[in-house]
Design a protein that fits this description.
This protein is of the alpha/beta class and 246 residues long. It folds into 2 domains: 8-73, Ribosomal Protein L25, Chain P (Beta Barrel); 82-241, SPOUT methyltransferase, trefoil knot domain (Alpha/beta knot, 3-Layer(aba) Sandwich), CATH 3.40.1280. It contains 6 helices and 12 strands. Strands 6, 7, 8, 9, 10, 11 and 12 form a 7-stranded parallel β-sheet that branches. Strands 1-3-4-5-2 form a 5-stranded mixed β-sheet. The mean pLDDT is 93.
Length: 246
């Protein structure tokens, strides 16, 4: 059976009364070389404004695709929660999975974090490359999952008191196997979740989190990988306070 699912693509900002947009770069390459779409084929574009447009290909060049904008929609797909994920940096494939799944689960902001037991260390040379790579992953995940806004990805930062205080606008959860608290909260809209590295958080880091007002949450009876913990936490939070319903 032929797959009739409409493909979605991020595009440049669309101005009022604009009726065409040009897709370039990786998007154009994917359309032309991978999907092999033709003039007259339909797709969907979004520009992070909260809107998306049905579109039709009207012209193709070697490195660009011109589409005409048709119907405009404002889908209700973004989470009502403003979740900031403080994620300890892990090996590339594991961190890639976190970026992808956190985006699909509606995270608002991701802060790659360097804690005491973080094995992967970035420098001035490879940080921009990593940031660009992570953004591509969140773009792909947003296109696939139907989101109309990308999560914000900040530059890697050291785990310290200032970091914990800066991003705790509401309630904060600090996940650790020694935790005694849970995800309960009277009212949760702005949420910060901190996930440790493979070796876990140090005792000093847990003490620092408690002083900053974070709940030290136990992850359950089984030891979770650093890429599994955020998927678990985000799913629970979206179910309890967000837009995941049974």
């Amino acid at each position: 059976m032929k797959n009739t699912r409409i493909q979605r693509f991020l595009c440049s900002p669309i101005k009022q009364n604009q009726n065409q947009v040009t897709l370039t770069g990786d998007t154009a390459h994917h359309l032309i070389r991978v999907l092999r779409l033709k003039i007259g084929d339909r797709l969907c574009v979004f520009d992070q404004s909260g809107y998306e447009w049905d579109a039709e290909i009207v012209a193709k060049k070697r490195q660009s695709v011109e589409v005409v904008l048709l119907n405009c929609h404002q889908p209700d797909v973004e989470s009502p929660l403003q979740i900031t994920l403080l994620q300890s940096i892990s090996k590339s494939n594991r961190m890639d999975l976190v970026m992808q799944k956190a985006t699909e689960l509606g995270v608002h902001r991701i802060v790659p974090m360097l804690s005491k037991n973080t094995v992967v260390r970035l420098n001035a040379k490879n940080t921009p490359r990593k940031m660009s790579h992570w953004k591509k992953i969140t773009i792909g995940a947003s296109e696939q999952s139907g989101r109309v806004r990308l999560p914000e990805i900040l530059e890697p930062q050291e785990l310290n008191q200032d970091l914990l205080s800066q991003y705790k606008q509401g309630i904060g959860f600090f996940l650790d196997t020694t935790g005694t608290d849970n995800f309960s909260a009277e009212k949760a809209t702005n949420i910060t979740v901190a996930i440790g590295p493979e070796g876990g958080f140090s005792n000093d880091e847990k003490t620092m989190a408690e002083k900053s007002g974070y709940k030290i949450v136990k992850t359950g009876p089984r030891l979770l990988r650093t890429e599994t913990a955020p998927i678990m936490a985000l799913s629970i939070l979206q179910y309890l306070y967000g837009d995941l319903v049974n």
